[in-house]
Amino acid sequence: xxxxxxxxxxxxxxxxxxxxxxxxxxxxxxxxxxxxxxxxxxxxxxxxxxxxxxxxxxxxxxxxxxxxxxxxxxxxxxxxxxxxxxxxxxxxxxxxxxxxxxxxxxxxxxxxxxxxxxxxxxxxxxxxxxxxxxxxxxxxxxxxxxxxxxxxxxxxxxxxxxxxxxxxxxxxxxxxxxxxxxxxxxxxxxxxxxxxxxxxxxxxxxxxxxxxxxxxxxxxxxxxxxxxxxxxxxxxxxxxxxxxxxxxxxxxxxxxxxxxxxxxxxxxxxxxxxxxxxxxxxxxxxxxxxxxxxxxxxxxxxxxxxxxxxxxxxxxxx
Length: 318
Description:
By secondary structure, this protein is an alpha/beta fold. It contains 12 helices and 8 strands. The longest helix has 22 residues.
C-alpha cells in the first residue's frame, strides 16, 4: 500500500533531495550499456538490480547526512510502450517491470527513512518521443498512451508519478489527466532550450498556465529538468503567480545545448561547485522550490555540492 499517496510530505514544506543523471552516470562512469537510454532493462537481472541499488545509496547517504527528505525515482523513464517495444518488451512485461521498479525502492525506504526525513516513492515517466525534440500528440492521445504506465504505478506502492523531460504542452495535459483518472498525485517536469523555451517555442509560463487551466491545477507542482540553469534563469519572472507552481529543479551539469550534448561522445560534467551556487540563487527566486536533484551529466558530487550551497549552516543563515 502506498504510504504517502494521500498526503505528500513534500507539499508541506522542507527540502527534498533526488538523484542525479542516472543514465549518464551508468553509461559514462560505470560503462553500462543502456540501449535507447533505457535504464529499466537493468531490472531484469540480479546484477542490474544490484547496480541500481548501489547507484541510489550514494544519494540516500547524502540526504541522510543532511537530514533531508528524498524523492526516490524509479528507473522507468523509458518504460513505456513504444520504447519497450523497441527493446522486446510487451505490455505485460512492461507493467511488471514498472511495478518491480517500485518494489526495489521499498527496500531502500525501509533502510533509510527516518521520522523527520520521509522518502517519497516516485514513478518516473518519460516522453513518448525523444526528450530533446518537440513531440506531437493531442491530449487524448497522450492520455491513452501513458495510461498503461500510470496504471502500473497505481497498483504499486508508488506515492506519486512525475513526467520528466516533457517537450510539449499537450502531452503534459494528457499525462496529468491519466494520473487524475488513476488517483495518482503527479508532477510535470518540462525541459527547455538555451533560450528558456520549450523546443516548440512556447514559454514555461504558457506551459504551466495552460496545463493548469486544462486539468483544474491537478499537478501537485511543476519542475524543470535536462537544462542548465543558465538556460532558464532569465525566464523566471519572480513577480508572476506561475513561479509559485515550480517545486523542483533537476538541471544538467553542462551548459551545452541539447543538440551539442546529443552529438558529444564524452560526458561534460561541468563544475559541481558552480552548479551548487546556481541552485542557491534559484532557491531565493523560487519560493516553492522543494525538490533538488540533477539530470544529464550530474552525479553524487553535484548533489553534494548543491547541499553544501543550499543546506549548509552558512547558506541557511545567509
